[in-house]
Design a protein that fits this description.
The complex is a heterotrimer of chains A (307), B (249) and C (215). Helices cover 44% and strands 15% of the residues of chain A. With 307 residues, chain A is of the alpha/beta class. In chain A, the strands form three sheets. Chain A has a five-stranded mixed β-sheet with strand order 7-6-8-5-9. The longest helix of chain A has 25 residues. In chain A, 47% of the residues are buried. Chain B is mainly alpha-helical and 249 residues long. The chains are: A alpha/beta (307), B mainly alpha (249), C mainly alpha (215).
Chain lengths: 307, 249, 215
């Protein structure tokens, strides 16, 4: 595109921005106060948490439902589980992509369950009335402890258990909520008997943790196992032989009155098609290649024959 | 247990007062970020504001710059710096410095410029050089207004230093962000109380310092002893626009 | 990805405009509400010194509370609605404005007041037609600074997941993607500058007797 046109576009854009923006804002309904306003039972509000993979999954749900003729309202990127869970409960949100073990830990922290089937069962039992989960996908997004490849090589670390006797002067980086959890850092140190000089509170598998690893501010960190930078940044995922961190399968959490059988079958077919490697690829397309969420979702759905 | 009781319990738990995550450490970190940012911001804004105010030049530059800088969203700036330079002390420090410069710069500029011309004329009349007028007449006369700018910047910087925790650093913001992530409202409240107490304490300390540092000829107390005279009123607009500032975070 | 990606902007224009609209609402509503609160409160404070001192103390304390903390504290009460953003932003603006309202009223020259009284103005009439108009430039200069500050502070609410231009900062941070952040910053500054110009124009219209009072 010639520069002149672009500059003019920008000027027009900036001038129109305020006016249109005001109109758009005024006419937009409150993003979270809306329910099933269509009233005919076909408007579905798809939500997502505010991290990249979940946004993509939400977009995939939304596009697949649209392709099946449903009216879809997107409320993507809306904050933490504590915020959206209550909105699923009162049906202001219809469905959100979730992770089975993390969700179980949230609604019933004292329930112990191991293995996907047991977790899903415990989850169904623990969910409040009116809220349900569908079948879990085989796609896993687990918590993964990583160490820079070079360091892992130097100290011969391939499992979390190898930290014992090595890591007492190292710094571990991870999200705040993970430090004291039984399936988190605390659980690992108890199960494997290692210690770190410090647990530095960073973000949840985000750029801050990655940058800290890169700069050597921390020697080990918690990341999502589907984080594409694990491969690109030369990080080694350590084994967790005692399965302290458990397994997290993608699972749709939904308000039962908001989805009919047809919508449920659409979501079930997505869960069936999703794989762990597929999740990593989706994340790479979105976070590394900077493609837009709608395109990443469309490409995946097309490739899987779901559109 | 009500949230209020939880907060009281949090403050009375000795475990929260020791170690690398204890209140003294976090308070020290918070103070360190704030003091460092204030020192650098003052080193930038005070000389520029003083000289330009003394010369009564660059009004468009000073006020325009201050207004533009004020419009920079601190949170956006912080994320931009993290992407551009990576994590560490630099992103929050730069964001805090940029937050603190406008109030100090504008108040120094307006304070120096607003000194009653009869006073500076008299000083020149008794043979003071321009730099002597700047240092010995204008500076002491405008101390209250300059210190007001410093105070407003300080309260903002201390309150905003909370966001250092967003990029993985320490400080009292750790309690706020960790409490948010762990759903511990009492920790969020306790952290906020500590930030607010620190900010108000700093402001009070600066008020006291200002009183001690201000020349007796400038304070209101001594002014009262002088029989009232019809001073030409300071341009009220500039004096007031200089004394207000913004919440940056 | 440190280069600017124009294609992204072109593809996402409608989303950006939606966020801009949200941002404007979350800036203007609290500022308008704050003005409605601060004017009567300021008038009261200008009259009654024993009200002013505690009000000033409370507003200083509110101002010192980090905004992310106030937003978080609102969350259990009002959930993820605009109210969660509006109430704290309004409180900050009130605490910034109150001093200006009081100062503006205190700046009204005693002789003006006496003249109005001599002309037979009753207190309320005098307040509305003489004192408030004289105080207006000072109130407006406070409003302008508060407005700019609020426009910047709205972005923080995106940490909780409320949509605004701040959402672009979160997206950019999460994906290490510069473009959304730059767009967010430029639009925030644009909103601030245009709002400021609007307030200046408003002030010129409201106080035609002041020349160049708004700088």
């Amino acid at each position: 595109m010639p520069t002149i046109t672009r500059t003019r576009n920008v000027a027009v854009f900036s001038a129109a921005a305020l006016a249109i923006g005001t109109l758009a804002g005024c006419s937009a309904s409150d993003p979270l106060a809306t329910g099933n306003e269509a009233g005919d039972g076909t408007a579905i509000t798809v939500a997502s948490a505010n991290f990249p993979e979940n946004v993509i999954l939400g977009e995939i749900y939304a596009q697949a439902l649209e392709a099946s003729g449903f009216d879809v309202d997107r409320k993507l990127n809306i904050g933490a589980r504590e915020v959206y869970f209550s909105q699923i409960e009162n049906c202001e949100l219809s469905v959100v992509p979730e992770y089975n073990q993390a969700l179980l830990a949230f609604i019933a922290p004292d329930v112990a369950a191991a293995g996907t089937a047991a977790i899903d069962q415990a989850l169904s039992a623990a969910l409040p009335d009116g809220v349900g989960v569908l079948s879990s996908s085989s796609a896993e997004d687990n918590n993964a402890v990583v160490v820079p490849e070079q360091l892992a090589e130097e100290y011969g670390i391939s499992s979390v258990a190898d930290f014992a006797g090595i890591s007492h002067e190292w710094v571990f980086g991870g999200p705040p909520e993970w430090k004291e959890r039984g399936d988190g850092f605390l659980g690992l140190t108890e199960a494997y008997g290692f210690e770190f000089a410090e647990y530095r509170v960073l973000d949840y598998s985000g750029p801050i943790t990655l940058s800290a690893l890169d700069k050597g501010d921390i020697q080990a960190a918690l990341l999502f196992s589907t984080t594409p930078q694990i491969a690109t940044n030369n990080l080694r995922v350590l084994e967790d032989p005692e399965l302290v961190m458990g397994v997290n399968n993608v699972i749709p959490l939904y308000c039962e009155s908001a989805l009919d059988d047809e919508a449920i079958s659409v979501l079930e077919s997505i869960s069936q098609a999703l794989t762990t490697d597929g999740l990593t690829d989706l994340n790479a397309a979105y976070s590394i290649d900077k493609q837009d969420a709608d395109r990443v979702a469309r490409d995946w759905l097309t490739a899987e024959g779901l559109l | 247990m009500s949230v209020f009781e939880q907060v009281v319990a949090w403050f009375s738990d000795p475990a929260n007062w020791q170690g690398p995550a204890g209140v003294p450490t976090r308070l020290g970190e918070h103070l360190a970020y704030s003091v460092l940012a204030m020192l650098i911001a003052s080193a930038i804004a005070l000389p520029i504001g003083a000289v330009l105010g003394h010369l009564n030049r660059g009004e468009v530059f000073v006020l325009g710059l201050a207004n533009t800088v004020r419009a920079l969203p601190t949170f956006g700036l912080l994320t931009l710096l993290v992407i551009a330079t990576g994590t560490g002390i630099l992103p929050p420090l730069v964001a805090l410095i940029i937050l603190a410069v406008p109030p100090i710069l504008v108040n120094t500029f307006e304070g120096m410029r607003g000194v009653n011309p009869t006073v500076t004329d008299a000083a020149r009349g008794i043979g003071l050089t321009s730099s002597q007028v700047l240092l010995k007449v204008r500076l002491p006369s405008s101390t209250p207004l300059i210190m007001l700018g410093v105070r407003l910047a300080t309260i903002q910087v201390i309150s905003t230093a909370t966001i250092a925790a967003y990029v993985g650093l320490g400080g009292l913001g750790r309690y706020v962000f960790d409490g948010l992530a762990r759903r511990q409202l009492d920790v969020v409240i306790s952290g906020s109380i500590l930030v607010a107490v620190l900010a108000v304490t700093a402001e009070t300390a600066l008020i006291l310092i200002t009183r001690l540092c201000t020349s007796p000829g400038v304070t209101r107390r001594s002014a009262r002893r002088v029989p009232p005279r019809s001073h030409p009123r300071k341009p009220q607009q500039s004096a007031t626009s200089a004394r207000i500032t913004s919440k940056g975070n | 990805m440190l280069e600017f990606d124009w294609e992204w902007v072109e593809r996402n224009t409608s989303m950006i405009l939606n966020l801009l609209g949200e941002h404007l609402l979350l800036s203007y509503i609290p500022t308008a509400l704050a003005l409605i609160v601060a004017l009567p409160l300021g008038i009261l404070c200008a009259r009654l010194h024993w009200v002013y001192i505690p009000t000033l103390a409370v507003s200083t304390i509110i101002f010192a509370i980090p905004s992310i903390a106030l937003f978080t504290l609102m969350l259990p009460l009002t959930g993820l609605t605009r109210t969660t953003a509006i109430v704290p932003l309004m409180l900050y603006t009130v605490s910034m404005l109150i001093r200006n309202v009081v100062d503006g009223l205190h700046n009204v020259d005693g002789t003006v007041r006496q003249a109005a009284e001599a002309l037979g103005y009753r207190p309320v009439h005098r307040l509305l037609t003489v004192e408030l108009p004289i105080a207006l430039p000072v109130v407006m200069s406070g409003l302008r600074v508060a407005m700019v500050a609020t426009i910047g502070a709205v972005a923080v609410t995106s940490i909780l997941g409320l949509p605004s231009l701040g959402s672009l900062f979160i997206d950019g941070t999460q994906r290490f993607f510069l473009t959304p952040i730059v767009v967010g910053i430029i639009l925030t500054i644009a909103v601030a500058v245009i709002s400021d110009l609007l307030l200046i124009a408003l002030q010129r219209i409201a106080t035609p007797w002041t020349k160049g009072a708004a700088k």
